[in-house]
Design a protein that fits this description.
This protein has 76 residues and is α+β, with helices and mostly antiparallel strands. The chain has a domain at 2-38: YefM-like fold. Helices cover 26% and strands 20% of the residues. The protein has helices at residues 6-11, 13-21, 69-73, and strands at residues 2-5, 26-30, 33-38. A 3-stranded mixed beta sheet has the order 1-2-3. It is elongated, with a radius of gyration of 26 Å.
C-alpha cells in the first residue's frame, strides 16, 4: 500500500493511475490521514449471447409436471 498526499496525487495523477491499473493499491491522504483509495474500474460484464448454452443441459418432461400439493402449500 502506497500512501500519497493530495498534493503529490495532483502532481503525479497520471503515474498513480497507471500504477493502480497494474493492481497497486494507492491511498491518498489529507496530511497523514488516509481519505481515499485509487482503484481501477472493473471491466464491464460480458454481454449475454442468446443460445450460448444450447446443448449444455436438458430439461426433462418432469419439469413441466404440476408440483405435489405439499410443495404448492409453500407457494401460497
Amino acid at each position: 500500500m502506497d500512501l500519497t498526499t493530495i498534493h503529490q496525487a495532483k502532481t503525479n495523477l497520471s503515474r498513480l493511475i497507471e500504477r493502480a491499473e497494474r493492481g497497486e493499491e494507492i491511498v491518498i491522504a489529507r496530511g497523514k490521514k488516509p481519505v481515499v483509495r485509487l482503484v481501477p474500474v472493473a471491466p464491464p460484464a460480458k454481454k449475454r449471447i442468446p443460445g450460448m448454452f444450447k446443448g449444455e443441459f436438458t430439461v426433462g418432461p418432469e419439469f413441466f409436471e404440476p408440483l405435489p400439493p405439499e410443495e404448492m402449500e409453500g407457494w401460497e
